[in-house]
Structures are given as structure tokens and as C-alpha cells.
Amino acid sequence: MNVTRGIGFAVAALVFVIDQVTKLLVVRALGVDLAFVQSLIQQKLGLDGLNHVQEILPIFDLRFVANIGVSLGLFAANSDATRWMLVLLTGAIAAGVIWWMFREKKLPDVCALGMVLGGALGNILDRARLGFVVDFADLHFGTWRPFLVFNVADAAITIGVLILLIRALLVRDKAAGESPAAVENEVNA
User: Fold this and answer.
1) How far apart are CA 113 and CA 165, in angstroms?
2) Which DSSP state fits 151?
3) Which residue in 19, 109, 138, 154 is the catalytic one?
């Protein structure tokens, strides 16, 4: 394994550990009984009565949410079959990211892929272990919430994807022997 890939996998491991530790700390700080939440989900009783919230700043709360779906609450895993289908689907996506990491040579792209991989693995572990993903970060401005409640894994995935998109759309690597002025003329043309 080359150094670039090693750094990418180190980024993935760091994101994974930070994600799992923050989820554990928030669940403890809010006094959430995960076994009770699991039983509510398994019995399809709903989670509306759960209200574990702690204000940190006027614009930021720790708010426990048991997310049984994926992005934006889509594809809710209302049964064990759909839960494990989501685990398999996200596992396949993570495998694709690993494959991409082995092919990618540029360090910024490998680090961005590491962020996506670490976040995906953190959420996969939650879904496999608990049956839901623990979300807790609630950014809001009064009653307006620009994001759904999220976690470190979600943030890492989003930032990693944004880095990949920005680099794909805006960053051009200069060819060997090409002067910076030639690249600038090509970009400005």
C-alpha cells in the first residue's frame, strides 16, 4: 500500500472513531436508553414520545434522533429485511469507495474518499448494531433548520463529496512539463 492510500485509510479510521465516540457521548449525555429505542422501533410504536434534547448554543442543540432511513429520511427501513438491504446497499457503496481509493493517485481526492468511507462505515455499524443510525447535531436559526438532524459521519460524507465535486469541476492538474502560465491561459480561454 502506498503512502497516499495509507493516509486515505487513516482519514477513514479517524472519521469512523470520531463518529462512534461522539455518538456514544451524546447518547450518554442525553440519557438515551438505546435498548428501549430499539424495542419501540421493532414493535413499530413510533418514536414521537422521545424528547432527548440539550441546548448547547442558541443555534445548536444536541437532539437524539433514531434515523431508520437514509438521506433525508428516504427509504425507511421499517422491517428487518429493509434494514439489512440498506446495510448491504451502503456496504456495496463503501466497497466502491475502497475500489476508487485504490485507483486514485491524488492525495486530496484520496483524503476526501477516506472521509466518505469513514462516515459510511460509521453509519453502517449503527444500522447493523442498533437497527437505526444515531443522529444528534441540530443546527437551527429560530425555527428554521437548514439541515435535518445529522451526525459526524453525515458531515464527513457531505464534505468529502463536496471536495470531490469541487476538485472534479474546478481543479485542473497541469500536465508534465507544462508551465503554470500555459495552464492559466487554458483556464481563462
Assistant:
1) 11
2) -
3) 154
